[in-house]
Amino acid sequence: MAGRLEGKRAIVVGAGQTPGETVGNGRAMAILFAREGAEVLCVDRIGERAQDTVDMIVPEGGVAFARQADVVKASDCLGVVASAMERWGGFDILVNNVGIGGGDGPAHRVEEDAFDRIVAVNLKGMWLMTKTALGVMREQGAGAIVNISSLAAVAGGIQVAYEVSKAGVNRLTTSVAQANARHGIRCNAIMPGLMDTPMAVAGIAAARGESQAEVRATRDARVPLGGKMGTAWDTAYAALFLASDEAKFITGAILPVDGGMGVRIG
Question: Which residues does the chain have with pLDDT short of 50?
Fold first, then answer.
């Protein structure tokens, strides 16, 4: 089915990506949304990376433009919404694809600065962007928000800041869904499992001093469904559904996209 977002206006935050051999979640979502008919505002902390995504969309006949913003700054979030309003006069979709790691560890080892930084980006930044967008969506009486969480929200034990921040994203999602349903606004989240994205694979390889091939093999072996990680396109297709009118009666859902990892017990 083509044109599943025909006529929609979408903001994708985190639409750039860490350089690497594969595509990242934000870039895949921005490209797919454009292919399905949406105009896309590609937002990233590093403006050049957002523009790179735009430069991939436009030659395919899609419509996109870039905006640099750091979502931990309320003023930058206001700037993103202002750009969308100037261009479109409103918007239909917000995708919050913000997330970092680095310097994390179990509770008895992680340093305070690392904990604060990760929670500020992954949770507070997502709340700030959501809060800013809700003003427009509530006035419109419509809107769809898709938050990118992680299987780490419900599993793990060695990255306490990341795990806590993503658990917070899940609760942020359900809280926003409940508070805004009567305004015609839907809010859902996706919990990706092990994905073959540059941020994950290249980042882990660099941290461990291993090759990317070694990291891929280790991660693939942990996935129940087919013994292979998912890709950013798996995340993107889930987001496409949740952002589309096909999901018009779905809000407050936390959708695992994890190859069955989340159903393992014991």
Answer: 1
Same domain, 205 and 119: no
Domain that includes residue 212, residue range: 194-229
Residue 178 and residue 207 share a domain = no
Tell me what pLDDT residue 266 has. Answer: 53
Are the C-beta atoms of 95 and 146 separated by less than 8 Å? yes
Residue 264 lies in a domain: no
- Give me the active site residues, please: 162
CB atoms under 10 Å from CB of 90, counted, come to 14
DSSP code of 123?
A: I
- Give the span between the Cα atoms of 129 and 97, in whole angstroms: 11
The structure tokens listed for 33 are 């949304």
CA 243/CA 147 separation, integer angstroms: 10
CB 5 within 8 A of CB 36: yes
Cβ-based neighbour number of residue 248 at 10 Å: 11
Segment holding 118, helix H or strand E = helix 112-119
Q: Contact at 8 Å (CB) between 56 and 23? A: no
